[in-house]
Structure formats: C-alpha cells, structure tokens
Specification:
single chain, alpha/beta, N-(1-d-carboxylethyl)-l-norvaline Dehydrogenase, domain 2, 2 domains, eight-stranded mixed sheet, two-stranded antiparallel ribbon, globular
C-alpha cells in the first residue's frame, strides 16, 4: 500500500524537503504521488501563500526562485492532513510545535510515524523555567501523538539544498525497515543519507552544537581569527563528546555519531557562514543591514549570529531575541543554561569551561572579553 507523505511546515527547509519527497514519490510505487505540505496561511500581497504554491509551484516568500514539483500540494487543514498521512515530517520553528501537535492530536492514522528535522529542545513558555533535563522535541511528538519519531539532522543549509548542491544528513531511526524506507524517501544524488539506529544520539548532537556556535559568534565579534575559531570548535566538539558520555552514556552515544553530519558537520556549518551580511557601522540594527536582515540572510548560523550580536551591541539576550528572532528563544543560551545546571549539580564545571563560559556570558555573569581566558587552561591542554 502506498504511503502518504506530509510535510508539516512550509519555511525554506520545509519547502526543500517537500521538493525532495515529491520528486522521489513521483518516481516510486512505494509512496503516494501526492505529497502534501501544511502551510500556516498568510497573505503575500492579496494572495494566499497556499494558493501561490499550488498555482505557481513556488514558495515565493521562503524559498523564492526554486520550483516545486506539481505533485507537492499545499494544504491548510492540519487535522485533515493528520488523518491522511502515514509519514509526518516536522520542519517548523520549535516554538510552534506544541500548538501544531495540539491540532494533530486525535487526528492521526493508525500505524503512522513521524520524522523530525527540528533542531533544539523544548523550552516551554517564556515565563516558565526550563524543565529539568534536556526535553527533546521527539519526546514531545511521541507523547502527544503516540507514534514513533525518527530524526533527520545534519549540516544542511536550505538555500544550498534548493540549488542541489551536494550535502549529507544523518537519519536516526531504531527500526531498520523503516529507516531504509525513509532513506528511499529522502535520498537524492545531491542529498546523501547515513543511518544510525540511535535516534537520541542524532538529536542530542543537533542540540548541543548550538552552544559551540554561540561561542563561535563571540570569537567573531571580538575579532579573533580562524585559528581561534578552529580551536573553539575542536574544544567544543570534545566537550560535547565528554558531556554525552558522562550524562547519556547508557543511551549509546558514540564517537561514530559525532563524526556524522549531525555531529562535526553540523558544528562546522553552524560556526562558519561566509554568506553573512556584515554589520552596519553603528551596530544599532537600523537600516538595510539591520538585525532582521542579518538573521534572514542565511538559514544556518543563528546561534553564531546572535552570539556575535550580543558582543557587538551590548544588548541583553532577550532584547536581541525579540529584535532578531521575533521573540523566539534561541537554542544555544537555553541549552547552555541547562547544561550548566547539570554540571553544577555533578561538580563538573571545571571540566567544561567552554560550555560554562557561554552560559555565564549569555546570562550576564561574565564579560565576553573573558571568553578566551576561560579556555587557556582547558582540560584538553593538561
């Protein structure tokens, strides 16, 4: 029986994945020819975005210039989509996930499965404290929908995927049969997939790398060169490995996972972005090179960019999040806070100076200029 594929989210990455899935479905008897994309409806001028996608076959707002296959169909009824789909692919900003899951709850097919492309952890509402322990988004999907959830992560910038520039991703899926099926759905000659059975390890890498990317942003703002940034990336990589081995050793996170696209590949793509728009001379966020343009210039590197902005502007984190991310809570500082709490409880702060420094700077307890000083006596150098 053909599997019905639905992409939940129509941003630039959601549009990219819709294109890939629609092209693969069109040439396969395994999947239904029609791939549906859930669109949070909005007006572009006087036209609905869903109508534009279905008539022009282009997401003119989030992925302009990329033609979508005609069998990629935009829909707006979330409950109807859930009742139709066998494979639900979640590709949307993490702060919208609880609301979307509420709309899907009770409207899913028996035997349906999910795939998450969302990097990060569940942060709750703005006024709520971070829940104890890293609350992964796949856990939220599983608990709300009662279905298994695989993970697809890697060093994947949507504009490059849209241009069919070669890249790779890591698929975390514990069911080998389902993993093989999902690989057939996602893989193309330019988008190559590696499979790891441990879903958790793929997702935790995608979360922890945001701390390192924030630190890389500090380096850029302080004027350090590529040598320093390379050192920060390497030390961050080693701290991630040490952290997951200490706190999640029983979960099976290995060096092999960290060497995948979801690990070292994602860290590098998050810390470097040669396509970034440069700051205006005043760094006050005004004019065409202001903060909104800086964040929307490229899909990747938001943690790096905000880390850079904190140092250049001197503004508080929450103010920058409101100005740059429309109020969305950035993952790097959130995860750094939880990691710091766990390390403090275990008496391990001295063994993770990079992660600790990122938290202290983001929370205003340390001056950014002291960032590198914290790394000079790193345990890796002892």
């Amino acid at each position: 029986m053909e599997k019905h594929v639905a992409v939940v989210g129509s941003g630039n990455m959601g549009s990219c994945i819709s294109k890939i899935c629609a092209l693969n479905a069109r040439s396969s008897t395994e999947f239904c020819n029609e791939v549906r994309i859930w669109v949070h409806e909005e007006l572009i001028g006087e036209e609905k975005l869903s109508d534009i996608i279905n008539t022009r076959h282009e997401n003119v707002k989030y992925l302009a210039g990329t033609r979508l296959p005609e069998n990629a169909i935009a829909v707006t009824d979330l409950a109807e989509l859930g009742s139709w789909a066998d494979i639900l692919i979640f590709v949307l900003p993490q702060q919208f996930l609880p609301q979307v899951l509420a709309g899907l709850k009770g409207h899913t097919r028996p035997g349906a499965c999910a795939v998450s492309l969302i990097k990060g952890v569940f942060a709750g509402q703005e006024e709520e404290p971070m829940p104890k322990g890293l609350s992964l988004l796949t856990d939220l999907i599983r608990s709300n929908l009662g279905m298994e959830c695989a993970v697809l992560m890697g060093a994947n910038l949507a504009p490059e995927i849209a241009k069919e520039v070669y890249c790779e991703a890591t698929l975390g899926c514990r069911d080998p049969t389902r993993a093989a099926q999902l690989k057939r759905l996602f893989q193309t000659p330019y988008f190559r997939i590696s499979i790891i059975e441990n879903e958790f390890s793929v997702e935790i890498c995608g979360a922890l790398k945001s701390i390192v990317a924030t630190g890389a942003g500090f380096c850029d703002a302080l004027g350090f060169g590529d040598n320093t940034k390379a050192a920060v990336i390497r030390l961050g990589f080693m701290e991630i490995l040490r952290y997951v081995q200490r706190f999640y050793g029983s979960a099976g996170v290995t060096k092999r996972t960290l060497m995948q696209s979801c690990g070292i590949g994602d860290i590098i793509s998050s810390c470097y972005n040669t396509k970034d728009v440069k700051w205006a001379a005043t760094h006050d966020g005004s004019g065409p090179l202001g903060m909104h343009d800086l964040v929307t210039t490229c899909y990747g590197g938001r943690n790096r960019k905000l880390g850079e902005a904190m140092v250049l502007t001197g503004k508080p984190l929450r103010q920058l999040e409101k100005e740059m991310l429309d109020g969305q809570r950035l993952q790097g500082p959130l995860i750094a806070a939880e990691v710091h709490r766990a390390l403090q409880e275990e008496g391990q702060l001295q063994r993770f100076p990079l992660m600790v420094a990122v938290h202290l700077i983001c929370s205003g307890q340390m001056k950014p200029r002291d960032f590198i000083e914290q790394l000079r006596e790193h345990p890796e150098h002892m």
